[in-house]
Every structure is written in structure tokens, then in C-alpha cells.
């Protein structure tokens, strides 16, 4: 890592908190169950056939949903529709319903998160830049008690909004992009944006998006870690 870095911008999900394991996996498993039930019900109403053909088992649908989450989260609907064209509108509506205000009661921090942030605050300005539905992201922060570690927290509606937010932050700090490092789990979002804008980047290769590749995304991060404890040596402590 460059020695002139003065500020660190963290992503939240699967960077500081275990969103994939604690939220996504159980939610997608429930989504698979509901999608198949809805599809069978819709087909039965349509033509009296109780068991529609060409549907996967629940286990297979869970595998596909989670695999696409790891390989190409943004492309999941299109990829799954190509793989399973038999899934109809009601199946997708059933999946959407699972993700309406899900509980965060089981959400946990990454191991060592609080200690790491406490140490980093001694030498760097810390910022959090996350995207998603605001109320949901706030509940995650409150559950894991992380907001107090940061100089500022910014929540944007979409991954694309991270670009402008990162540019605004760098400008407000009156720092060069090379002095603001970006740390996150998505090559196709904050890491790609950071690289394009000239920021040092650290890819947290964990959870959602962990099986993305530089070849597929066209993004080559400056550093790769798979747990937060590896960030300390990169920053020289």
C-alpha cells in the first residue's frame, strides 16, 4: 500500500459485516423454497398439472442462486432466467417478497472488525460508503454498532452512486485520489470505481462477488485479502 494514504473508504457488506453468510444464504434458501411453491401453484391453477415440468429441486435452485451471488450478483436475474426459463412471474414475485425488510438479528461483524477500526482511527481518517435501501443499511449499522468508528457514513441508492460519492468525498477532503484507499468486496462496484478514479484499492475477496475475476470484470485490484486481519500488514502495522 502507498505510504501517502491518509484516508480509508470502506464498503459495508461482506467487508466489515458477514452479509453473505448471515443474510444472503438463509434468504436465498427461503427464496428457493417459495419460488418453487409459487411456480407449482401457478402452473396448477393454469392447467391442472400439480407438478410443472423442467423445474429444479429446491437444493439445485439454492445452489444456482448462491453461485450467481458469488460470481455475478448484478446479473443474477438474467443468468437464472437463462438457466431456468420455466420460472414465471409468480416465482420471481415470491423471491422479491423474501427480501422485503428482512431481519438483521443474526447479522455479525467480521472477526476483528472493532479492534482493527480502533487501530486505524489512530492514523487514518475513516469513511463508510455503502449502497442499498437506506433503512436496511441503517439497521445493519445499528445491529453491528459500527457507525461511530467513521468520520462520516454515506449511503447511496445504487452501486453506480458510489462513483459520485467517492469523488465528492475526495474533493471535500482536499486530497488526491492516491491518498484515499478504497476497501470493498465488489470488483464490479467500489473496486472498479476506485481503480478508474486513481485510488489505491483493496479487494476483500469474501462472500457476494468473491468468485468474480479480473478477466470477467476487467478490474485488477492493487491488493487482495480474504480477511480483515490481512489489512494491517498492508498498512504497515
What does this 3D model show about the protein?
- There is one protein chain.
- The chain is α/β, with parallel strands linked by helices.
- It has a 6-stranded parallel sheet, with helices on one face.
- Helix 1 packs antiparallel against helix 4 and helix 7 packs parallel to helix 8.
- The longest helix is centred in the N-terminal third of the chain and has 29 residues.
- The model has no long low-confidence stretch (mean pLDDT 92).
Strand line-up across the major sheet: 3-2-1-4-5-6
Distance between the termini: 12 Å
N-to-C SSE string, H for helix and E for strand: EHHHHHEHEHEHEHEH
Number of discrete helical segments: 10
* Content-based structural category: alpha/beta
Low-confidence stretches: none
How many strand elements?
A: 6
Residues in helix, %: 40-55%
Largest sheet: 6 strands, parallel
Mean pLDDT over the full residue set: 92
> What is the assembly state of the chains in this entry?
single chain
